[in-house]
Amino acid sequence: MMLEKLGAILELTRPHNLIVAMLGVLAGYFAASTAYGENELSTDPGLATVMLIVALIAAAGYIINDYYDLESDSISKPWRPLPSGRISLKEARTLAYAFFAGGVASALGLGLLILAFVLVNACLVHEYSRWIKRSGLLGNMVVALNSSATILIGSLYKAVEEAAPLPLASLIPAIIAYSLVFGREIVKGVEDYHGDKKQCYMTLAVTRGPVRASKLASIVLSATILLAPIPLLYGQYGVVYLVLSSTTIALIVHAIYMLTRASTVEEAIEIARRTRSTLKVAFLTGVMGFLLDPLYSIAI
Question: Candidates 1.10.1220, 1.10.287, 1.20.120, 1.10.600; correct CATH number of 2-299?
Fold first, then answer.
């Protein structure tokens, strides 16, 4: 019974997504370090604390999102921990707020700027689940902002550490991440079309139809392809970023091709289900490009 409960909690928190979020912190930190002209590994324990904060807030967000999404998930994802009854609503809510509290408390020793950033992000994560996601496009934008914030907080922490202004070049990874996640969230809305429609969520898939929403997602994702080469033009990244960003672009191109093929509602939903996984991998390869390229430069 205890193992089943633990399994349900792990499923709620999406550990694989938490790992990617923590890698995003490192990518942002190294982006700022490179912009400052530094070329060495950090031994600052505060960086590990920032990674922990991001993991705790993200885990809380995933749980509270499932808490508010119970009715929708009962239709579109009945196997999830809450609809299936493997964990109760009260347990999920208590766990979510414990993670929120842990994330904010961990930021208390990192200065007012980081604390304010964490508080704003935690509020956005919570309010997205409570009501913002019902607004559709605004909800997609908030999720994209929260995802790119995992990179941005890494850069921001480095700026605080250096007591220097945040370099504009370090914002580029966060902007690219924002574009990719924005498109992916529109795709997710297509995947969740039936449940969202019953809940009266005003996603693009509900208001414009799944087929049209798929094509709009393709346009947003195309912007990511255009943004991806900018770090190379800045001269801030090299061959490792080139290889991994090319992989990211190839995955996005494949996703766009699949999304534009949808001609019926059910076909669009099925393609969205597969494409969202592809875009998750694209996000990971993009983050790894921003992370591994500076590490490669340090190694050589």
Answer: 1.10.600
